[in-house]
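Private note to self, pasted from the team thread so I don't lose it. Backbone tokens:
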């Protein structure tokens, strides 16, 4: 396809192409056509990346804050200048509408600019001690970070994985998603072009288990940063334990949405329905389990279904598309299986539940109601364009259902009762809670979960400190 770049890895500043390496076919999910062949790393490539990262850390850890800030600010400017080009690449690779890809570029712009400011604010503190002695607390970069980014936010996830370590003074080896490599490379290129030394950040691709085992077994690596499923996250934590690596884990979710009968129904529906089908539901914080107070249930369900049927599905590059295809062939198959099993167990399918067209990976916006709590789709993250709507009698039952699962990434609630808002903020077991809003992110706001949804944070001051160790220095 035209305007799609040639693919490579970036190791020590060199564009490492195919040669004798294995390759992975990158597919446009809207058409099923091959975009390019991606070279996959072998052991020698990974060893070279480790060498470069070790060298880069030895230098970058001592780089002045102003230099680190200048690189991040410069990269933010370049991302803004290249917004349309990068957004089109992401839409070709991942499928989401072009408008969403443009917003994703802006996510990195805002994050890099915020991190540039945080470079200047990593103060530490001085403790109160008797005269003649001094005790200080300082923050120092942890070392080489091995970072693993998924495909669902092909621009934003690499930005998060690169920005925090660079701001902290670390070097980073980023394994980008094989489905969306050109987006990863475009973000890294902005950092290079803004003056980042090439040995500070590397981008590799490969067979996930091979790459993770090789990098995490190396004494060079001091921290693991991973975004992805809980199953894979647990596996990587076991590997990381052998070298006692610091970890930041942003894992799966199954977002509960509590809707009370005092909410503004039309405003709530107009907000949550587009958010449910954003990126075809392939969002870790996607609102998924709609926990609706009984007296409002039928009106909420019917209004949701009406709006879901109006969602315009199509190629993300086409004007007016509101939802693109799923990202790969595995996702429609998973939707068919999980929705079909729920219906067999007694759930009501109001719309969707089927693929669209005979090319690409399009799936219809789907709504299920009265879903049995023991159905797979109520317990495992569907990660697709399906809403699950059930009725509950009161606040206590709704909170119990929201907290029933081991997932605790994001939770939402819609109510006009101020006292209830405060109760929900305390009692919902999630790393992020949205009350009368679906906007959870921001460059200055920590992004992370609880329970099986992981630990640690990206974004905000917390995202930089996660790449640093705390050292107490006592002098007499």
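Design output:
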């Amino acid at each position: 396809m035209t305007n799609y770049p040639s693919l490579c890895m970036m190791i020590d500043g060199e564009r490492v192409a195919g040669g004798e390496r294995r390759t992975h076919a990158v597919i446009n999910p809207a058409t099923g056509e091959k975009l390019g062949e991606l070279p996959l790393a072998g052991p020698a490539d990974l060893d070279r990346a480790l060498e470069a990262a070790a060298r880069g850390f030895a230098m970058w850890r001592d780089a002045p804050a102003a230099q680190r800030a200048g690189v991040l600010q410069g990269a933010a400017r370049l991302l803004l200048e290249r917004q349309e080009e990068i957004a089109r690449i992401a839409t070709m690779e991942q499928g989401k509408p072009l408008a969403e890809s443009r917003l994703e570029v802006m996510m990195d712009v805002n994050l890099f600019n915020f991190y540039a400011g945080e470079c200047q604010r990593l103060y530490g503190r001085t403790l109160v001690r008797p005269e003649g002695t001094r005790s200080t607390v300082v923050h120092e970069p942890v070392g080489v970070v091995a970072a693993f980014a998924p495909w669902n936010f092909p621009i934003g996830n690499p930005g998060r994985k690169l920005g925090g370590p660079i701001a902290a003074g670390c070097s980073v080896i980023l394994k980008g998603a094989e489905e969306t490599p050109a987006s990863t490379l475009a973000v890294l290129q902005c950092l290079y072009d803004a003056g980042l030394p090439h040995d500070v950040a590397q981008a590799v691709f490969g067979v996930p288990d091979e790459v993770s085992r090789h990098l995490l077994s190396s004494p060079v690596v001091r921290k693991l940063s991973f975004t992805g499923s809980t199953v894979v996250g647990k596996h990587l934590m076991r590997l990381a334990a052998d070298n006692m690596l610091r970890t930041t884990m942003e894992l799966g979710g199954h977002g509960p949405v509590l809707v009370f009968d005092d909410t503004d129904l039309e405003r709530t529906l107009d907000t949550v329905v587009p958010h449910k089908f954003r990126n075809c539901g392939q969002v870790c914080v996607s609102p998924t389990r709609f926990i609706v107070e009984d007296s409002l249930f039928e009106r909420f369900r019917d209004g949701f279904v009406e709006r879901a049927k109006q969602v315009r599905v199509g190629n993300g590059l086409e004007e007016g598309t509101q939802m693109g295809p799923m990202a790969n062939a595995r996702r429609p198959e998973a939707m068919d299986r999980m929705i079909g099993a729920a219906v067999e167990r007694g759930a009501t399918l109001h719309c969707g539940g089927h693929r669209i067209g005979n090319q690409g990976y399009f799936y219809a916006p789907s709504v299920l109601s009265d879903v049995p709590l023991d159905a797979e789709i109520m317990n495992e993250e569907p990660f697709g364009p399906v809403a699950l709507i059930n009725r509950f009698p009161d606040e206590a039952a709704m909170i119990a259902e929201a907290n029933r699962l081991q997932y605790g990434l994001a939770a939402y609630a819609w109510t006009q009762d101020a006292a209830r808002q405060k109760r929900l903020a305390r009692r919902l077991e999630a790393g992020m809670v949205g009350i009368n809003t679906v906007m959870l992110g921001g460059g200055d706001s920590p992004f992370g979960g609880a329970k099986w949804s992981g630990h640690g944070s990206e974004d905000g001051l917390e995202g930089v400190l996660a790449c640093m160790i705390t050292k107490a220095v006592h002098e007499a």
